[in-house]
Structure formats: structure tokens, C-alpha cells
Amino acid sequence: MSTDTAVRPKIQVEAVRKSYVIDGERQEVLAGVDLTVNEGEFVSIIGPSGCGKSTLLNIIAGLDQPDSGQVELSGLTDMRLGQTGYMQQKDLLLPWRSVLDNTILGLELRGVPKKQAREQALQYTKEFGLKGFEHQYPYALSGGMRQRAAFLRTMLMDQDVILLDEPFGALDALTRIQMQEWLLQLWESLNKTIVLITHDVDEALLLSDRVYLMTARPGRATLALDVALPRPRHYDMVTGPDFSALKAQLMEPLRSQIKATG
Amino acid sequence: MEFLKKATGLFTWLLPVAILIGLLVAWELWVQLADVPKWQLPAPSAVAKELGASRDLLWDHTLVTLQEIVVGFLAALVAGLVLASGIAYSRVLERSVYPIVIASQTVPIIAIAPLLLIWVGYGLTPKIIIVALICFYPIAVNTVDGLKATDPDMVNMLRTLGASRWQIFTKLQIPTALPFMFSGIKIGVSVSVIAAVIGEWVGASEGLGYLITYSQPLFLTARVFAAIFVLSAMGIGLFILAVVAERMMMPWHFNEKRSNSMRQL
């Protein structure tokens, strides 16, 4: 998918630094991060807790600005806010809106008439496993369904770049595997550039073209591992020898990072 | 299970009603057996008789008091919501006006009532102002809290979807504030009846509060009780109205609470 066309960088992060005042003390969270994501690529960022992965994603999304360095998104360095589809670990569905009205939130903010937006969303409810639940309130749904509803809300914005901040982190193991397979299928049918933040090595390898490893705070992207597994991928690959070899390559430095944080 | 649930539901209703009836019966018996004079403490049966006998008189005065409450409360609601929105939306207003609003609560509004008579006279207006002043505070303060109770992650989610400040206010802050606003409204409704009565005590020629101050020196104690009964009924009725409005405006809120408590079972 990403090999047949000319490789163009979609997201370029250069020497990004960021520090926050935490408990009255200035602490460096990102210490010069460099990272490139090409158009149509699926890239994962993995690292120990508190390494600033979410801060990096917030900066790419435009919610936050770097202290120094720069971020280029589709060739532009500013006005990134509202230009990416951003999904977090929490589904962040509005409890007072039905599932359908939650999915059209972004379209509504853009000024698309409600009726038209609803019709548009209804075309995808089956694919997103929400059929029959469109008019329920979010509390009536399972964790996996809520997450898929949040996905549909993100997807309907039709952004080229999708940022995923541990979107399966809060789900149980079985639902997570289901969601990973579902996302694989979905991504292979769309032509999106995806950045995924995760704790899960299997998840990172199974889904990605490339995996970045971040160091413990202050965060820095140290290793970029190309995942040369064939596509379409399937969950069975997780137990294969190629997969295990890649996993070993990733686990070793990750373990030493975790040790470093104590 | 279903039967049990229904039975306990019924029981929670029955118990307070049974206690109330028990108290009334004890009151009745005490008055009858101890021969308490009617001007001192009328029996519930005497109060009921009085309710029937002076129903036209009570009705006329009820309408006056109800009007003071409704108009005063609605004025407080509008003013409270507008001011709360302003405070939640603008830093400047929050820093300048909000402390004054909070400090104003230390002024005993009852003590202002006589001044209002000097300024606006004896009509309905001073009573409406007192009701509005007393209802305003709980509505405004609760709504401000609600408008500020938004989840920062939700705000960020809306920002990444391209929401403007105004859209965040209307699509997120206002719905988040609704349960808080209704808490304020319920408190406001409960105190509004007291406010109207106080307003009438200070100086009036009509209303249930006036009827009480008028009947008391004449030792028409049963009539005083009848007026109190009507005032309580009015307060309960208005409260129920607020609860019904709350449920109609936020069906999600109550279903969510119910499903959460079911999950805990």
C-alpha cells in the first residue's frame, strides 16, 4: 500500500522539546524527538509509561505547542488543530447524545445539517458494529462498542491523518484482539496515515509498518524498527517465527528502558 | 425478584405516609383527650373543616402568593442563568462579578424587605423582588459550578474536531451544567415559598403570608394552620414540577444513574 507510490512524508517531527512544571519543578518531557511518518503509513510509538508519548501526540494534533523544534503536518507547520482525527483511550462520548448523534458531532461542528450528517453516519454503522444501537445512549453500550462509536466519529471527519492514543488500552484482552483485527481490516481498506501509541508490543508489530521506541522521560525516539511482515495481516501471525524475531528486537531495548525508569 | 423490587418500592412510599398519618392521629387524639382549646391548637379535623369553610378566601390569597413566587422565581432563573453563563465564559466577569455575588449572600435579604417597601411600595413588586433575590443565588452558583465542571479531555476532543469556543460552550458546557442547574432550581423552588411569606409579613394586604399575620391576633388559629397547609402543598407541588422538568430534559442522566446502580448489584 505504501510501497507502490512515491514515499512522501506526511508528518515530520524535528527536534521537538517540551517541558512542564510538575510539582513546582520544571521537568523535561520531550528531549528532542525526531520522527517521520510517510503518507499512507501505519506507525506505532511504544515506550514506558510517562515517556511523553501522549504529549507528542497532543503536539502533532495541535492541542499543544512545542517549546522548540517543529512539526510539519501535510507540509504545514501551523494550524494543525482540527486537521487530524484524534482518538484517545477514553471514548469521550457525550452521555446526553444518542450513539448516532455522537458519531456526527464533528460533522455538526463543521456545519453539516444534522439530517444529512445522520444519513452519512448510518452508511457506516454496520461496518462499525453499531447497527441496531444507533438510537441508544452510550451508557447502554459495551466498552468495545463505545470505542467503535468514537472511531466512527473520528473517521467521519475524513482526515488523512489519524492519531490513536492507546485506543484499546481500557478494553479487556479478547475485545482488544477483536478490535485490532477490525482496525487492520479497516485501515487496509482506507488510505490513511495512522500514528498509534501503545504499550502492547504485539499490537504495535501486528498493525504497523514501522515501530518507534521512545526512551523513558525525558522522551526521545531512539529506535525505528521496520516491520517487514506481509499484508494483509492476520492475528495468527503473532505466533509465527518472523513475528517472534521482530518482537525480540523490540523487547530487548524496551526492557532496558523500563529498567532505567526503575 | 421483580415482585420484591415492586414491594420495596411501594414500602418506601408507604412508610413516610404511614408515619405522617400516625402523627396526625396522635395530634387529633391529644387535642380531643386533653381538651386543648381551639385557639391554642386546633385538631387536624378542625383544620380540615376550616380548609373547606374558607376555601374561597384561601384560594384568592393563594393566587396572589403563587403569582409572587412564579414571577420572582422565573426572574431569578433568567438572571441566574445569564449571569452564570457570563461568569463561566469570561475571565474578567469571573474575577470582578463572581466575588460580589458570593459576598452578597451574607447580606440578610429579610432585612432588605422593609427598605423595598420604601423604594417600591406595598404592591406585588417588593415580594417578587425578595423571591427573586433569594432564589437567584442557588441557581447562579450551582450553574457556574456546572459550567466549569467540564472534563478537560472532552474539551480537547472537541478542539481536535475543530470546535470553536462558542461550540464548546453550547455543545459541552451547557449540557454538562444541566444537572447542577437543576440542583440549584430545586433549592430555589424550596426557598421561594418562604421568601414570599416573609415578603408578605413585612407589609402586604393580600397573600397567604398576610392571611397568617392577619388571622393570628384574632386567634383564628385553625385558619393559620389552613394557610400553612396550603403553603406547604404549594411548595411540594412546585418541587415536583421541577423534578418532572428535570427528568424530561435529562432522560440520559437518570437512565445512566439507574444502569450504574444496577451494575453495582
Offer a few descriptive terms.
heterodimer; A: 262 residues; alpha/beta; Rossmann fold; six-stranded mixed β-sheet; three-stranded antiparallel β-sheet; 33% helix; B: MetI-like fold; 0% strand; flat
Q: Mind explaining what this structure looks like?
A:
The complex is a heterodimer of chains A (262) and B (265). Chain A has a domain at 1-84 and 194-262: P-loop containing nucleotide triphosphate hydrolases (Rossmann fold, 3-Layer(aba) Sandwich), CATH 3.40.50.300. Helices cover 33% and strands 24% of the residues of chain A. Chain A contains eight helices and nine strands. Chain A has helices at residues 53-61, 99-103, 105-110, 114-122, 143-155, 173-189, 201-207, 241-261, and strands at 9-22, 25-38, 42-46, 68-73, 85-87, 161-165, 193-198, 210-214, 221-226. Chain A has a six-stranded mixed sheet, with helices on both faces. In chain A, strands 2-1-4 form a three-stranded antiparallel sheet. In chain A, strand 8 (210-214) and strand 9 form a beta hairpin. Chain B is an all-alpha fold and 265 residues long. Chain B has one domain (46-264): MetI-like (MetI-like fold, Orthogonal Bundle), CATH 1.10.3720.10. In chain B, helix 9 runs antiparallel to helix 11. In chain B, 31% of the residues are buried. Chain A binds chain B through residues 58, 61-63, 81-82, 84-86, 88, 90, 92, 94-96, 105-106, 108-110, 137, 139-140, 153, 157, and chain B through 151, 153-154, 156-164, 167, 171-172, 175, 178, 250, 252-253, 255-256, 259-260.
